[in-house]
Amino acid sequence: MFRNVCTFAAAALLFGCAATRDGLDYASVSKTYGGPQKGQGRIVVLWDQGFNDALDHGYHVSLDNELIGILRTGTFIYVDRPAGRHELSVNEWDFPGVTKQEVNVAPGRTYFFVTRQSERSKAITVGSFGGLAGIAVTAAVTSGSNNPGPVDFVPLDEAAGKLAISEFRLAK
Questions:
Q1: Of 5, 28, 43, 141, which is most buried with the most CB atoms under 10 A?
Q2: What does DSSP say about strands 98-105 and 66-71: parallel, antiparallel, or unpaired?
Q3: Are the C-beta atoms of residues 91 and 98 closer than 8 Å to each other?
Q4: pLDDT tens for each residue of 14-67
Q5: d(C-alpha 132, C-alpha 26), whole Å
Q6: CB–CB of 59/49 below 8 Å?
Q7: Phi-psi region of 97 (alpha: psi -120 to 50; beta: other; left: phi over 0)
Q8: Where are the domains of the chain?
Q9: What is the sign of the dihedral through the CA atoms of 151, 156, 56 and 122?
Q10: Which residues pair with 116 in a beta bridge?
């Protein structure tokens, strides 16, 4: 019985790895769909850190309060939007805060962002293992945080973004 449970768990972990990496790569997306339409810009968000197995629940990324995709390790999402001011965000049900990033979109441009676990998220994770002392440390570390959310959106210039994304797959 124990052997069957272990085999099932191993299969689930392997399936989780495969499931996060089976979308199109960015070169295929660009070739198939081209660049943004006239008057629009493209926003690309990628996630290169975290779990790469069944535990990778993903981050729900929204633009202007509309879900654009669930970002998992080794994946990217993109969306084309009209020129103007837009707001990227991540709001997780199990995290006490929202990440927000304003993006001023210019027509014909592509904006790349890589996501990283925020300092507040790191502190809360460490604090959750420390009992009362951990809670006190977490409160002290997170009280001055500029970003109350679970991730930071780190902008990349277009050349660096195209280079970085070459190993990523389109999130489903």
A1: 43
A2: unpaired
A3: yes
A4: 333 333 345 667 777 666 567 898 999 999 999 876 655 555 678 899 999 999
A5: 46
A6: no
A7: left
A8: 2-170
A9: negative
A10: 152
| 135-155 residue pLDDT tens | 544 454 544 557 788 889 999
Which residues make Cβ contacts (< 8 Å) with residue 24, sequence separation at least 6?
Answer: 32, 169, 170
Distance, CA of 172 to CA of 22 (rounded, Å)? 9
> 27-53: string of b/e by CB count within 10 Å (b at 16+)?
eebbeeeeebeeebbbbbbbbbebebe
pTM of the model: 0.72
Token pair listed for 8? 């099932």
Runs of H (alpha helix) within 34-151: 119-127, 131-142
Angstrom distance (rounded) from CA 2 to CA 90: 39
CB atoms within 10 A of CB 147: 18
Task: Give dist(CA 170, CA 16) in Å, integer.
Answer: 15
